[in-house]
Amino acid sequence: MNFFEHQDRAQRRTRWLLVLFGLAVLAIVLVMNAIVLVLFGQAEPVAQGEPWLTRDFLARNIGVMVWTSVLTLGLIGLGSLYRTLGLRDGGGAVARELGGTRVDGDTGDPLRRRLVNVVEEIAIASGVPVPEVYVLEQESGINAFAAGYSPDDAAIAVTRGALEQLDRDELQGVVAHEFGHILNGDMRLNIRLMGMLFGILVMALIGQRVLLAMRLSRNNRNAGGIVAAGLALMVVGYIGLFFGRWIRASVSRQREYLADASAVQFTRQPEGIAGALKKIGAGQGALRADTEEVGHMLFASGALGQMFATHPPLVRRIQAIEPGFREDELETVRQRMQEDAQARRAEKEAQAEVEAREQPSQGPGGLMLDPSRLMEQIGDPGLAQILGAGLLVAAMPGPLERAAHSDAWGVEVLLYLLISPEQDVRDAQLLRVAAVRGGESESRVRTLLNAVPELQADLRIPLLEMSFPVLRHRPREEREALQGLISELIQADGRVSPFEYATGLLLRRQLRDLEQPERARPGGRAPLARNAGSAQEVLAILARHGHPDDAAAARAALAAGLTALGVENAETSADQTLARVGEEGAWNQVLDRALETLDHLRPADKQALTAAMLATITHGGQTVIAEVELLRAIAGALHVPLPLAELAAAGVTADGTGAPGA
User: Fold this and answer.
1) Which residue of 10, 12, 97, 397 lies most exposed, with the fewest beta carbons within 10 A?
2) CA distances from residue 436 to 426, 433, 481, 482, 630 in whole angstroms, order as listed
3) What CA–CA distance (Å, rounded) separates 595 from 141?
4) Among residues 196, 183, 117, 173, which one has the least CA distance to residue 150?
5) pTM value?
6) pLDDT of 142-184, one tens digit each?
């Protein structure tokens, strides 16, 4: 099952979840009505043995039932809305609620540095924004979770025990498991689960408060009805919560197997995630913090089996990865954990990382750009992509890497990337930086320019992605001012390059999804057939940037993309589309309009469009960096996680003179 099929399945699963919870809420409303009618219903005396629940009785109490239904639905709805709105800040809000501490990108702690490196490598390999990283400092058990509405506001949190007790392969397996949840569309479902369960729980909490207030009250006369109402709320709320937990467990368990399989696919090292699961089974993974709401998000429940468990038993998960595993082997793992000198291992790994950074950096290259393989790896990257991402990070100049990870310098990295090599344009741009952000910001940009006057072209997008997480912690007004400044820097020379367009588009998407995370959906319901014109314009713009000086080659590349899209008479349509795009004005404005429409496509249609884009840029066996940068931006606008590391590793060149794999 590929990424787009996962998104289709996630949407169906969400609809099914809403139906199940809708039925649970309906049952709660019916039970509440029954209780209220028994306690407060107005009925005329009936003879012994005759039924009291008659049509006349229901008609007499129709107002009571209406108000009971409205109040019950209102309590559940307001509770769910309150909880959901409280999570609008994204996955970081969930991590902070559980006591998480954000890990700065420039941390000097070797264990946290290792965690940041692992997260960045898998994010770049997956083609998604680098998430925030948190550590639950008070948790000595081994666990982790990913939370957020979308990859743009995601956060990955691991416990202190996971940092200290897992080696790099095991930590990579755990992080890859959490990225499986991100890419499979599970995070949005988890947020919905939290909101819905809280809406049901709030009834029980109100009932508890009512009973407590009546118990402490000195005047209990005529309080029987209030006590009965409070007791009814509490009982019905906990019954509803019981079924809500059952629904949550049934939805959650199978997703854990899928995320485990994704982790094995990412790393090609099943012993990594299996080792982490064994250590949890041999020790403990439950959090000391209250995890009722987030239990379904965790890497493991910390128990080998329990009623209504949100996770499959650990032994079964291990056996799915290592079929010959026996439960009694956990004792051996437990003894090994006790004997392990974790401090020496951490010191050794830290030294190894220092030595690796002191070695001459090696640029990416050597892999053929295979469209069919790229399609398979969208949302499901493998070891080659993670290694490619590691090479990109290793090739990044030290001053830029440190600045991108710094809260103080991260914004200046974004500005550095847009500074023109032309002196007149550069001077004007730096003046605007000083005017908008002050002289200190302008001085930092100059410092970066002096340290790295020219950045390797295939490192620009990875550096951009590494610096984006810093924006999440800036005030809204500063983010809006930065967006305006970046637009000015892009327009400073009167032209828009593919990289400049990619920077502006990815920044706008990040900020929009931060402000409105509930809108960051991987797919809508719009059919491709109704948006064929916009899709063809996107392909035409890609073809032109891949062959800027060869109209015939651009036409052939577009025809290849249109053929992959299923367009009849592709060559004729290519001529018409290229002419139409040329007449509609600036290419970046045409692309903006097209992408705004295409983001609402169904996942299956996004898959078809992505395949057509890959067919366009790979036609003729030559791919240039401008196509890669545009494709990354387009994929980001469509909420498709493109494995950028695979593209960068293909040996593309800035001018197109070198073929992939050269």
Assistant:
1) 12
2) 15, 5, 8, 8, 28
3) 45
4) 183
5) 0.66
6) 888 888 888 888 899 999 888 988 888 999 999 988 888 888 7
